[in-house]
Write a structure and sequence with these properties.
single chain, 33 strands, 551 residues, 9 helices, alpha+beta, 6-stranded mixed β-sheet
């Protein structure tokens, strides 16, 4: 084929021609109008000098059956334009368009980015009208005389890496450098912030989590914005924690542990703030049994001096048992009701400005006495001493107040009998007076069927004596309290260094005894009166002195 012969019939069976005549795919047809417009804009001189060029281009496209953008460009360029494409001598728009289509077969991109090349700059990649005319004037120019014929054979598989984009309309050349003065996006200004917490109530140890969203005037999320969690302290709002919004505009901040009921909100600077969110501090109460009817209530999150009430739960309204106030250690002690039936006690801490209302309850089961003690100050009382028996009633170490305790007494040879009773106090203690005893006895305390150990009392008789001297003799008289009529009394003195009984008598009905002894001649004589021990009392002894006769 020579000259401008457009007849391709001799090559109808050629595989390349059949491939060129095949219908174009969507990807191959993409940007066809753009490439044609680029050719028209970049080569006005060439089209004027050769008015048949446009018709020839349409003819080629028609003869090839509309086979695709790459086919149109390849056939339209011809050998001369192909050489110009391989040597980067086409105008930038055309060079970029051809590179986008024929880059995989070695056609390079323009040497300079589009932003740096202008039609008026000298030495730019835009070809002069003469060059454009020569590139399209003779499509039959032998391409073997041009250097670009060797480019595709070097290594066509490496060139596609220069243009990773498969869409030449989006990024014609990967070698383009960014503009020297890129335009930065204007800063986003937050216009609103919302805020809420997980709850309106919190215990003293609980940390409340707040979350909110930062948006601009259009309602779009604002990322990277610092947000403060503000707590109202008096008339002012004070920051207590800080967070930063994420890409969705959401921010999460945990408040510090509450010490009182507080109001919070999220804020940005002094201009934007969310709606206030009130969080009530809910104190925790615990109640424990200190003794039988003594109970201790402990509060956390309350204030010293806060009132606390103790109620007994009954059918219908609760019954007020006692009132108290929290001490400095936030405890309050109550005396509960003495009851033999189970009862539920309720402790109530009223609401204040610093905290919410709080309550706790305790199921109280009457305790069964397991221990009863008894004691007396002196187990050897005298005939005129009043005996008081004390003891404590408890249940496994817990004192039981309000229990009736009886004092039991048994004299020597007799039976147990009741002397009196009393009610145990708050600490479970009780004291009962037995009065005066006239002989040895045993005492014990009793609560229900539980009895204390026996305390044995030994009566200690008491002597009173007189000595009456005559001319030749002296009368020793005495009275012994606590003795019984007929009890034996011995009179003893030292004779020749030995303690010797020199007389014996019996206690009279009035409790008296009488001995007559001779008057000593030279010196005084010491005597002992000894009341013998019996089952009703202890042994009792006293000493008397008889003076010598005076001359």
């Amino acid at each position: 084929m020579t000259g401008h012969d457009d007849d391709l019939s001799p090559w109808n069976d050629d595989p390349l021609v059949r491939a060129l005549r095949a219908p174009g795919s969507d990807d191959e047809l993409a940007g066809e109008s753009e490439f044609l417009a680029a050719f028209r804009a970049a080569q006005p001189a060439a089209q004027t000098a050769h008015p048949s060029g446009r018709g020839r281009l349409r003819l080629v496209g028609r003869r090839l059956g509309g086979g695709g953008t790459a086919v149109v460009v390849a056939v339209a360029l011809g050998a001369g334009a192909a050489a110009a494409a391989y040597t980067q001598n086409l105008p930038d728009p055309v060079q970029r368009a051809v590179h986008g289509v024929l880059g995989p077969v070695g056609v390079p991109a323009p040497e300079k980015p589009q932003a740096d090349r202008t039609p008026s700059s000298p030495g730019s990649g835009s070809a002069s009208p003469d060059r454009e005319q020569s590139a399209t004037e003779d499509p039959t120019t032998d391409p073997t005389t041009e250097a670009p014929t060797e480019k595709p054979s070097d290594d066509p598989t490496e060139k596609p890496s220069d243009s990773p984009s498969s869409d030449p309309s989006e990024s014609p050349s990967p070698t383009e450098t960014p503009s020297e003065s890129p335009t930065s996006a204007p800063p986003v200004t937050p216009a609103a912030v919302s805020g809420a917490a997980t709850s309106h109530r919190a215990t003293p140890d609980e940390s409340v989590a707040f979350s909110g969203t930062v948006t601009d005037a259009a309602g779009a999320a604002v990322a990277g914005q610092q947000v403060d969690l503000l707590q109202r302290q008096g008339p002012a709002w004070t920051p207590v924690a800080t967070g930063t919004s994420d890409t969705s505009g959401t921010v999460s901040i945990s408040a510090p542990a509450l010490t009182r009921t507080s109001v919070f909100r999220l804020g940005i600077g002094d201009q934007l703030a969310s709606e206030p969110w009130r969080v009530e501090l809910v104190p925790t109460l615990t109640m424990a049994r200190a003794s039988g009817t003594s109970f201790v209530v402990t509060a956390r999150g309350a204030r010293a001096g806060d009132p606390v009430s103790l109620f007994s739960r009954r059918p219908g309204p609760d019954v007020l048992v006692a009132r108290s106030r929290l001490a400095a250690d936030l405890t309050a002690t109550f005396q509960g009701p003495a009851t033999r039936k189970p009862v539920t006690l309720v402790a109530l801490l009223p609401r204040t400005r610093a905290h919410a209302v709080a309550r706790t309850s305790l199921r109280v089961v009457p305790l069964t006495p397991t221990s009863m003690t008894a004691s007396v100050p002196d187990t050897t009382p005298g005939p005129g001493d009043t005996v008081v028996v004390s003891g404590t009633v408890s249940s496994d170490g817990v004192a039981l107040p309000g229990r009736q305790v009886w004092l039991m007494l048994r004299e020597a040879g007799g039976e147990w009998r009741r002397l009196g009773s009393a009610t145990s106090g708050d600490d479970g203690s009780v004291s009962i007076a037995a009065g005066q005893i006239d002989g040895n006895a045993g005492v014990r305390l009793r609560v229900g069927k539980l009895r204390s150990p026996v305390v044995r009392l030994k009566l200690q008789p008491e002597w009173s004596t007189t000595v009456t001297s005559g001319e030749r003799s002296a009368v020793i008289g005495g009275r012994v309290l606590g003795a019984r009529t007929g009890d034996r009394v011995l009179l003893r003195t030292v004779v020749d260094g030995v303690l010797t009984t020199v007389g014996e008598s019996a206690v009279a009905l009035d409790g008296s005894v009488r001995f007559q002894v001779p008057l000593p001649e030279k010196r005084q004589v010491r005597y002992r009166l000894v009341l013998q021990r019996t089952p009703t009392h202890l042994r009792a002894m006293t000493a008397v002195v008889v003076q010598a006769a005076t001359r």
